[in-house]
Amino acid sequence: MQRRDFCKLMAAMAASSALPLRGQTAGNALANAPAGFDALTMDYAQFCATPADERVFYALVNGQIVKQRLDNANWTPTAWGKPPALPVPGGSWDGVPMRSPIPNLAGTGKFKPTWDSLLQYEAPEWYRDAKFGIWAHWSPQCVPEDGDWYARNMYIQGQPQYKFQQEHYGPPSTFGYKDLCAQWTLLNWDPDALIERYQRAGARFFITLANHHDSFDTWNSKHQPWNATAIGPHRDVVGTWATAARKRGMRLGVTVHQARNWWWFQPSHGADKTGPLAGVPYDGDLTMAQGKGQWWEGLDPHRLYNVKHPHDALPDISYVKNFYDRTRDLIDQHNPDLLYFDNPRVPLGWAGMNLAAYFYNHNMATHGGKLEAVLNGKLMPPKIAGALVADYERGFSSEILPHAWQSETCIGEWHYQRKLYEQPGEYGGYMHPRDVIHWLIDTVSKNGTFILNIPGKPDGTIDSKEIAVLDKITTWMQINGDAIYATRPWKIYGEGPDSVKSGAFQGNSIRKLNAQDIRFTRNKQNTEIYALTMGWPENAMLIKSMGTAASTNPGRIEHVQLLGTGERLKWKQRADGLHIELPKSYHPPVDFAAALKVSLA
Q1: Which helix (H) or strand (E) holds 578?
Q2: Max CA-CA distance within the chain?
Q3: Which of 333, 366, 393 is the last residue before a domain boundary?
Q4: What are the residues whose beta carbons fall under 8 Å from the beta carbon of 67, sequence distance 6 or more?
Q5: pLDDT tens for residues 336-389?
Q6: pTM of the entire structure?
Q7: Which of 258, 507, 513, 546 has CA atoms 20 to 30 A from the CA of 294?
Q8: According to its UniProt record, which protein family does this protein belong to (predicted)?
Q9: Is the dihedral of CA 583, 588, 594, 598 positive or negative?
């Protein structure tokens, strides 16, 4: 792309951010929907500031979209949110129409907000070569050091985290999540040292959490005043990570989880059902006016907790547009190489579709016309799987997938859980580094890339047992990285008696793999095959898939090397397989897996 064309493209993309407030265009009204549905007449700040008895919501009732008002007497909070499909042209997703009522949200470029257009996507070479990334899943929810979903569960009487909240901070009617946000200090954070440690451990790219379901943005957000620059650490956390990572030549990823906030944070509007504070509203019901004289004066708690709404209320269009604006601001400010949505497909109908197209177009504009972006979504149907990189949370594939994909897990809870550190043993309650390495190998053998979360403490550090896990990963990767980086799947992913269980949240199945289970990768020239054992072989090995009579037809083997040692191996390729004896005098410092480099004639 010529410099002149690049400047024109960037100017057009910047101009498209000046969008009209009123959303629906002529001829775009939805049939069988009440007037006002999917029409942007106020922004999210105005919607949050509207008195509760004046807010209008919409829901699908008996197949029809109808208006609703909040009924406090019969209100119950939502959970994860399972919005229905709407009877609107073009369909819907997450309770939001797929067709945008607002024009020009996709930016300028070849990608449009349709699946047919997004299917032009191909995963970039850098990502397919990198194979391993480390993730810092940090937000104010790590402040209590009590694990995942603290922000929600602290408002649910009977939950262990509600009890923890009472014991350590007081009742959530007087000390709520907004107050924890101010205590996320990161006082001892050394991002350069952490990035250096993660890179030594083998990570080729780094991912940071941009926001969680709690709706707190960890960058200098233009559209969310509850952010890390204004509150808590008073730093642009995403931007600081970005500088540290890019200084060391690492790509940057960001993860966006905020779309679920519409449903997830509703318990903050409840109250105790029993006890001395029964019926006293939690702080989610506070208004901006009630902040006068408080540390949070000038901030609207509804911008953090969302407004209290009927159980089946569809996401308000102002909320959807705010999600779009915040995510686009994240893209524009930090130009991430990877954007991860913690949602099936892409979130919130037209917002997610336009963000996908905008991210691809923006990335091409900032990379001289070359698409270097990675977009993650979950539970992708096969017919649209190639439109982005499908993510399997804590899960696996049972086969080599035709498109690049991603597996992710955490060594503990996603948010820091002190109890895991306090458990006995070298690694406490964290995932054993052996399982991390096996997870990585299995994923790479099937055309995947592996992400590992290392949860951080509220002061910005990681603990000694997390470091112990990383140190073992470091040692193994420094010896065996050639079998991982810049490789591609071989003809089959592996052989052996055991296999992992396919699908998300099947992580425990990695533990049954052992030295009899072998996984394969190959170099891009297809001249070298790597055979990786899921354990250290105690006896002579037989790799059946590399025999001269094997159905894989591997070709004639010229040389076999054990990564980590220059000692000669005794090996022989026969009809029934490749026979190998590992040197008895050599044992690696970390024996989680042996990596054999098989060179073809």
Answers
A1: strand 577-581
A2: 82
A3: 393
A4: 34, 36, 56, 57, 58
A5: 999 999 999 999 999 999 999 999 999 999 999 999 999 999 999 999 999 999
A6: 0.94
A7: 258
A8: Belongs to the glycosyl hydrolase 29 family.
A9: negative
